[in-house]
């Protein structure tokens, strides 16, 4: 990543270095480098799924971001929905939003109802054409369900051994017809978005499935919605839409990335395995998805993150490091249980890794040192300087096996990191890149210090 590496900020445990109040000082020192936030409690709450997989939530989420409306998020675990949520939302499904205004609260559920209500309450920027010019947009929105069913029917048929080749071919043709029609409609509206030059409700409606199909259909069904690099696109307008969407600031926090959708494919195969046993076809898909995810992790090691992405990742670690340590050392992990966790006693090493990773991300974000590369950007005083020196000594003194644990922790955390569940795709890529660099570094040190044994 071409950055000088700041040494982590503090010692692993207060026990090892009793003279330093390790944890509070370390995280406080990192937090001092974050921009101050004084945002009032937002008037909108979005209730969405913990995994970040729900396509209906993504529609509303994109709308909130596009309109620039301040909102807070409450995550609902769909496998164990809290009673208060079931009492609040009659369908018990996500998404829902709570809108506070003038002392009253309104709860709205069903994604299409939410989209329309938010449009009504917050008409700017408009995500529907003006009255009287809406017919094409409404027709496209109404058609989305048919395209999504055609895609899912085709994908399910490919995986079903009892469906004949002819039936698969006919479902594929029906799906391709739907994509042809969408491509033509985008051209008709002038592009690059589905109904013209700006993001609208039609984009929000199509986005969730087009986005995951682009990554998942090649893995599950041998179907390329987007072209291989250098190849001409089969659907040029849809391709132009993907490119335009990727540049939309509103999409940055909402977008699921290639790594996360590939990892989700493998997770789905395991979730839907009969009695925990994968069929040959499921195993093949799972291996392809694991391979694509691993490749993507390696690719992120070469990423050159923007300052904003690095800062967003650092903010998230600083706010959430305790949960990450708990997950990385969980005896019974709640998700991605196939990823090997560390021992409980490795918690301190994971914490040090995370603090170090946050420090490096802050450095990428230009919030570590001043422009001359000298003094720290935030004044932490002598205590902080002392901590840095201790930490430097500690890192230099790590045993080969401790470096091995650190490298395993870095690879584990980068594989656990999913977008949009945990952070935006660019932030996730920035953090994975730093973690992969740290893993290689520690592996090199473990190898060198052990005389090539580890
Ligand atoms: N028609 C609803 C569908 C919402 C929906 O199916 N949400 C799923 C998550 S993708 C859900 O809450 N599932 C939990 C459950 O079925 O209990 C909408 O558009 O909001």
UniProtKB/TrEMBL annotation:
Domain GST N-terminal span(s) in chain numbering: 42-126
Domain of life from the UniProt record: Eukaryota
Any single Pfam family the record assigns to this protein: GST_N_2
All copies of domain GST C-terminal, residue ranges: 130-268
Signal is among the record's keywords: yes
Keyword vocabulary terms for this entry: Signal
One GO cellular component term noted in the UniProt record for this chain: cytoplasm
Annotated signal sequence range: 1-16
InterPro entries membership: Glutathione-S-Trfase_C-like, Glutathione-S-Trfase_C_sf, Glutathione_S-Trfase, Glutathione_S-Trfase_N, GST_Omega/HSP26, Thioredoxin-like_sf
UniProt name for this protein: Glutathione S-transferase
Species in which this protein is naturally found: Emiliania huxleyi (strain CCMP1516)
């Amino acid at each position: 990543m071409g950055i000088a590496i700041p040494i982590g900020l503090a010692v692993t445990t207060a026990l090892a270095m009793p003279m330093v109040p390790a944890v509070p000082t370390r995280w406080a020192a990192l937090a001092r480098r974050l921009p101050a936030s004084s945002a009032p409690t937002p008037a909108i709450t979005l209730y969405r799924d913990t995994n970040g997989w729900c396509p209906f939530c993504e529609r509303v989420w994109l709308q909130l971001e596009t309109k620039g409306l301040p909102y807070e998020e409450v995550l609902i675990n769909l496998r164990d929905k809290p009673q208060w949520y079931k009492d609040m939302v009659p369908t018990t499904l996500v998404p829902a939003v709570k809108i506070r205004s003038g002392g009253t609260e309104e709860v709205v559920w069903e994604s299409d109802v939410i989209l329309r209500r938010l449009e009504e309450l917050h008409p700017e920027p408009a995500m529907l054409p003006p009255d009287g010019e809406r017919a094409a947009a409404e027709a496209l929105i109404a058609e989305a369900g048919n395209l999504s069913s055609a895609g899912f029917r085709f994908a399910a048929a490919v995986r079903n051994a009892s469906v004949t080749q002819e039936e698969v071919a006919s479902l594929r043709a029906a799906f391709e017809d739907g994509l042809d029609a969408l491509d033509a409609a985008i051209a008709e509206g002038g592009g690059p978005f589905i109904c013209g030059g700006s993001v609208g409700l039609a984009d929000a409606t199509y986005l969730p499935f087009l986005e995951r199909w682009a990554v998942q259909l090649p893995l599950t069904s041998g179907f390329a919605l987007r072209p291989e690099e250098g190849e001409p696109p089969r659907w040029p307008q849809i391709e132009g839409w993907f490119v335009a969407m990727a540049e939309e600031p509103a999409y940055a926090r909402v977008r699921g990335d290639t790594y996360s959708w590939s990892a989700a494919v493998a997770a789905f195969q395991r979730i839907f395995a009969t009695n925990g046993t994968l069929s040959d076809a499921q195993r093949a898909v799972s291996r392809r998805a694991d391979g694509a995810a691993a490749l993507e992790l390696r690719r992120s090691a070469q990423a050159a993150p923007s300052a904003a992405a690095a800062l967003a990742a650092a903010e998230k670690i600083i706010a959430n490091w305790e949960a990450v340590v708990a997950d990385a050392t969980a005896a019974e992990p709640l998700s991605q249980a196939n990823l090997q966790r560390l021992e409980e006693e490795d918690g301190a090493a994971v914490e040090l890794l995370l603090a170090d990773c946050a420090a490096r991300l802050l450095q990428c974000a230009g919030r570590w040192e001043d422009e001359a590369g000298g003094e720290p950007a935030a004044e932490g005083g002598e205590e902080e300087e002392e901590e840095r020196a201790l930490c430097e000594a500690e890192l230099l003194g790590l045993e080969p096996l401790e470096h091995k644990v650190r490298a395993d922790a870095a690879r584990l955390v980068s594989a656990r990191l999913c977008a949009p569940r945990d952070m935006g795709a660019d932030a996730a890529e920035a953090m994975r890149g730093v973690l992969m660099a740290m893993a290689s570094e520690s592996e090199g040190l473990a190898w060198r210090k052990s005389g090539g044994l580890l």
